[in-house]
Write a structure and sequence with these properties.
The chain folds into 2 domains: 120 residues, NAD(P)-binding Rossmann-like Domain (Rossmann fold); 110 residues, 3-Layer(aba) Sandwich (Rossmann fold). Helix content is 31%, strand content 23%. The protein contains 7 helices and 12 strands. Strands 3-2-1-4-5-12 form a 6-stranded parallel beta sheet, with helices on both faces. Helix 3 links the parallel strand 4 and strand 5. Helix 5 crosses helix 6. The protein starts with a strand and ends with a helix. The mean pLDDT is 97. The structure holds NADP nicotinamide-adenine-dinucleotide phosphate. Pathway: Cofactor biosynthesis; adenosylcobalamin biosynthesis. InterPro entries: Precorrin-6x_reduct. It comes from Mycolicibacterium sphagni.
Length: 242
């Protein structure tokens, strides 16, 4: 049985490393970032072409089961995979790493709400880690922003006062503390991505008294089968293959 691993995360790479070469897997990446970290084993890169394209691709490639290990905010891909697998009767699993739960964080439902909190609380120095697509709601803010992204955001959606920091995790506690101090940050705005690779900023913010505005995850499609660890996902694949 060939398994499709929808990837783009550290967990997806760890799962591929666990399964390859014993199992017939193919990993899929969206192709958003140049020079992506590649999982072990066969990889395809690029969108499928919506629901219809995914259905066709699964059929053409004789996929017998799908593990969705995309980022918790990759809601469109997750919805497409859930829909198509249900239609085709394909076994389907979502690997969703546990969410963060920092004490004292202001929880919001969207990046637009996060921008409202920054404006209402009159924060002046913002560390924005919501990714290149999460910058636009802050365009009209007069605060200063440190925008940490893997690939540069569209120049037309930037707030007027900002610095772009191009980098890719993981990030350590000492470096995160130094960054918050050096840039005199008073609020961290982040998605609730979960995972250890980018978690140090939360402890650094807590220890330095920096406020946190946390964007909650989009809900998973109703009724999907979900696990939270690579071990559980590997067990599920083994059970499918028998
Ligand atoms: P998205 O909004 O859910 O997906 C948009 C479209 O990108 C999908 O409809 C699909 O195109 C394509 N796509 C997404 N993931 C794909 C995959 N693994 N393989 C093939 N096509 C994929 O997702 P996104 O926010 O653009 O995220 C894209 C990728 O970046 C994901 O793999 C995700 O794990 C990773 N990522 C996302 C975030 C985030 O905050 N959103 C952060 C870090 C990494 P078609 O409709 O043409 O099939």
């Amino acid at each position: 049985m060939r398994i499709l691993l929808l990837g783009g995360t550290g967990e997806a790479r760890a799962l591929a490393a666990r399964l390859h070469p014993e199992y017939d897997i193919v990993s899929s990446l969206a192709g958003r970032v140049p020079d992506p970290a590649l999982p072990q084993g066969p990889v395809r890169i690029g969108g499928f072409g919506g629901v219809a394209g995914l259905r066709q691709w699964l059929d053409d490639n004789e996929i017998g089961a799908v593990v969705d290990a995309t980022h918790p905010f990759a809601a469109t891909m997750t919805a497409h995979a859930a829909q198509v697998c249900a239609e085709l009767g394909l076994p389907h699993l979502v690997l969703a790493r546990p969410a963060w739960d920092p004490a004292g964080a202001v929880r919001v439902a969207s990046d637009v709400e996060a921008a409202q909190v920054v404006a209402n609380q009159h924060y002046s120095r913002v560390f924005l880690t919501t990714g290149r697509s999460g910058v636009a709601p802050f365009t009209s803010s007069h605060a200063w922003f440190l925008i940490r992204v893997v690939t540069p955001p569209d120049a037309t959606v930037m707030p007027c006062n900002h610095e772009v920091l191009l980098s890719r995790g993981p990030y350590g506690y000492a470096d995160e503390c130094a960054l918050l101090r050096d840039k005199r940050i008073d609020v961290l705005v982040t998605k609730n991505s979960g995972g250890e690779l980018t978690e140090a900023k939360l402890k650094a913010a807590a220890d330095l008294g920096v406020a946190v505005v946390m964007i909650d995850r989009p809900p998973l499609p109703v009724g999907v089968n979900v696990v939270s660890t690579v071990d559980e996902a590997a067990d599920w694949v083994q059970a499918q293959v028998g």
